[in-house]
Design goal:
The chain is mainly alpha-helical and about 425 residues long. It is about 70% helix and about 0% strand. The protein is built from 22 helices and two strands. Strands 1-2 form a two-stranded antiparallel ribbon. It starts with a helix and ends with a helix. The mean pLDDT is about 80.
């Protein structure tokens, strides 16, 4: 097997401009989801006295949740468009504004009330149903149209002396007209539901947003195997899977806002809190083994250096320091350990032994603390996280011992 050729091909896929723009764009909105999650936590602290106190303010405090995760697509359109503009050296602001307008035309169906209903005054309203996890197509479509117009020099150029911002706005005018007209024709004339079409096209991928066993296992296999070839697994997984995971989280947030139980456990936090403990490959367990059970000097030193970052889910020093990439000793447990953890977590949540994740906890929180917070302060999540770490250590153990013995032999040979 030509590992170098495979690595190059994977790297080419990972560096695809669309996947990179989607990944970078979604990274920008992580603070939005975390901030919204803080209010979810605030409203759901497991203290009866607090719940009684906060109840009169629940409606008001739920507003940040609606303006964060529930409007994820609105932010994604802007951030992804801006990211993609960097590849083409286009103005990100004017292009992103056009993308937003196109998105609203294509994705949002206006609600018109002709009479007062449940306290709402007659008027036109924007429903938020399609604002939670869509918008990727609109961002890419808009940038490509603008790029075509610039490439063909079909833009309005203002004379020297005109403020830069004004000049860029007029440069975006002609492509903007085309974008809006095309969006209007697709939506109002041809009556095409772009969201429904895209959902159908990507329905095979959408399967992994369902609460199924394969949805828990396949992403782990995909991400870890890609990592072994030297390509950051989340580079590919983020743009493909995050929209579905965030849609599930949005459904959970909406449910608990209305006093109902969360409905999905297949979210990004399922993996972040119970599978990627210490980072990709669940390498906190390996760092623990290296730090406390090594006999070889190099192994013990690597454990001491990497265990603190691993506690906070930063494992690049370990992955590239050992290294784990293309390492015959650790390739198997790097894949098997998180796969086993995903299976155990799936069973625990399927059997309702642990609460579903409902908030996005900061990714640098240590595993058990992050799991506790992400599940709405379910103490059982701490237990599950610790159990998963132990399982990971047991899987890594024989491979770690073989590696350490070999390292010790090399050190003795060098000493002689």
């Amino acid at each position: 097997m030509n590992f170098e050729a495979i690595s190059e091909k994977m790297g080419a896929v990972a560096n695809n401009r669309y996947l990179t723009a989607i990944r970078d764009g979604m990274a920008v909105i992580i603070p939005v989801s975390i901030i919204g999650s803080f209010f979810t936590i605030l409203l759901n602290l497991p203290i009866d006295a607090w719940k009684t106190f906060i109840q009169p303010y629940a409606s008001m405090l739920s507003i940040p949740m609606y303006y964060s995760i529930s409007l994820m697509a609105v932010y994604c359109v802007f951030s992804i468009t801006s990211s993609l503009c960097k590849f083409y050296d286009l103005d990100p602001v004017s292009t992103s504004v056009l993308a937003e307008m196109s998105f609203f035309i294509l994705a949002i169906v206006l609600n018109v009330l002709t009479k007062k209903v449940t306290g709402l005054q007659p008027g036109t309203y924007l429903p938020i149903g399609n604002m939670g996890a869509q918008g990727l197509f609109t961002a890419i479509f808009t940038v490509e149209v603008v790029r075509f117009f610039y490439k063909k020099n079909l833009i309005i150029k203002m004379p020297d002396g005109v403020p830069t911002a004004v000049g860029k706005s007029f440069s975006a005018l002609l492509p903007g007209i085309v974008i809006i007209i095309v969006s209007f024709i697709l939506k109002e004339i041809l009556k095409l539901d772009i969201n429904a079409i895209l959902t159908w096209i990507f329905s095979p991928i959408g399967y992994f947003g369902h609460d199924t066993f394969l949805s828990a296992i396949i992403p782990v296999l995909l991400i870890t195997i890609i990592w072994l070839f030297g390509v950051h697994g989340m580079v590919i997984a983020t743009p493909i899977l995050y929209p579905y995971w965030y849609a599930n989280l949005n459904a959970n947030t909406t449910a608990i806002t209305h006093g109902n139980a969360p409905v999905h456990f297949m979210t990004e936090q399922f993996f972040q809190r119970f599978v990627w403990v210490g980072g990709a490959g669940a390498t906190l367990s390996l760092a623990i083994l290296l730090a406390f059970f090594s006999k070889a000097k190099f192994s013990k030193t690597m454990g001491a250096v990497t265990i603190i970052p691993a506690i906070f889910n930063i494992n690049e020093p370990l992955i590239f320091g050992i290294p784990i990439i293309m390492n015959p000793y650790f390739a198997a447990p790097f894949v098997l350990a998180p796969t086993a953890m995903a299976a155990v977590t799936y069973l625990a949540m399927k059997l309702h032994m642990v609460a579903f994740t409902t908030v996005v906890a900061p990714w640098t929180l240590p595993g058990p603390i992050g799991a506790w917070m992400a599940t709405g302060f379910d103490w059982r999540a701490i237990v599950l996280c610790i159990v998963n770490i132990v399982i990971s250590m047991l899987i890594y153990w024989p491979f770690f011992k073989a590696y350490d013995r070999n390292q010790l032999k090399l050190e003795k040979a060098d000493g002689e």
